[in-house]
Amino acid sequence: VQQKQYNNLLTERMLALAAENGYIFDEADFSFVTVRDRIRCYYKSYVQSLKKRGIVIGYAARKAGLVSETDLENSAATVGKIYLPANTLP
Question: What's the whole-model pTM score?
Answer without folding.
Answer: 0.59
